Structure formats: C-alpha cells, structure tokens
Amino acid sequence: MSRQLSSLLAIAAVCxxxxxxxxxxxxxxxxxxxxxxxxxxxxxxxxxxxxCSQVKCLxxxxxxxxxxxAGKLLDTLKKYDAKATFxxxxxxxxxxxxxxxxxxxxxxxxxxxxxxxxxxxxxxxAKIRDEIKKTQDAVKKAAGVEPKLLRPPYGLTDxxxxxxxxxxxxxxxxxxxxxxxxxxxxxxxxxxQTLAVAEQNGIILMHDWVKQTVDGMPALIKTLKxxxxxxxxxxxxxxxxxxxxxxxxxxxxxxxQ
Length: 257
Hints:
Layout (H helix, E strand, L loop, with lengths): L37 H8 L11 E9 L4 H10 L5 E4 L1 H6 L1 H9 L3 E4 L12 H19 L15 H9 L4 E2 L3 E2 L2 H4 L2 H11 L4 E6 L3 H16 L3 E2 L2 H4 L10 E2 L8
C-alpha cells in the first residue's frame, strides 16, 4: 500500500488500547430467590460490540491529557454509558496515572499523542521516536497497556512520521472535524459546533483540559444519543478501514495509500 506524499511538508489534519465491550459472562448458578448475584448483574449489563456498519457511530476523542478535569469527564462517560478515545501526552500520564488506569478499567481507548507535544514535522527522527517511546512506556507503567494508535501533535504529519509510526506498529489517527473547544472555551459554542459536525463514523477532536468541554458533556451526550449516535472508540469506527501501521485516517489532502 503506497503512502506517497504529493508534498513532504506537514499537512494540517482535516477538520475513543482498543478495548472491545466485555464479552457476555458465562452462565452462573441461579441466585437466591429475590436477589441477584454480583455476577448476574454484570452479565445483565454486558453488551456485544457495536457494529458501526449498521448503526450511527461517533468517536469523541480527547487530546493532550489526561487533564485535571479528566475525572469529572470519566464520571460523565460512565453515567451515560459512552466510550471515548484519549490521545495522551506522556508528561501528563506521568503526572496523573490514576486517570489513565481508570480509562482502561472503564473500557476507553488510549492513543499516543507524544510526550511533550512538539511539532513532529519539525523534529528529527530520533526526537520523534523518543517522544513516542516515552509515552508508550508511561502509559504501560500507569495502566499495563500500550496505545495502538498515534495522533501526532497538532495533527501534523509527513513521510518521516508515517515511517516511524510504521516502526511502532501504529496507524496515524487524525479527525473528521473539531469541536473548536480550545478556541471558544464556551459551553454552548462547543456543543453547537460538535452537533454541527457530527456525522456517522465521524471522529471529533476535543480536549479534556478545557473545563467548558467537560462541563457541557452531559447535555451533549444526551443530545447525540437522542439523534441516534452510539458513542464508541476510534477503533470501532475504523474497524472496516483495515488500516496498516503508518497509514493515516482520515486521509490528509495530498496523501495516497
């Protein structure tokens, strides 16, 4: 599969560790009459993976974290049974490992967003590899898993970034649209923008360090669900794309693969 660039310069992006839904628990002995065992309750709540070719899926993605509001965001996602993908910076993984561990435990997906957020298209190969590796190590130390997806800082990529992503066995995940939360920092504006750009199998860029994003998430999730969206991880959205390491999705302008 070719990933030739019509230009070797960085291209701005086009604007949820895959953790499939838990399998149905094995049958357990019938609980005492009038009561349900813990195992039975878990079985009742277990769900099959969403088939995004048959239903409206949307992946909410959160960059630059875990931010200081990540705990509140996770509370909201849990309350409304929504999954997300977190593209984490290693420096914040190191500072807030408890949030990373909780993300994995609650079924969210983790991605690598570098260690200190440099522009990869202005970095040499050694720097890029170090940024990716340090974040992989930090996430593994915090939660026992390694991210399978890479999102370069600023959504900027080029042939060198693609080749290094291939070395790490990761596709490059950009986004179909942004919430513009980092710019507006206004609850209503973030909600309006997100609803305006939501589409089936879309990937939305957001940030968990933006307080207004986290504050507006309960109402936003309810509205998206009322519109028929299933909020899932990125890997569920891209499942049928059959991406190989180093491939970019969505495909940036000028890329051929």
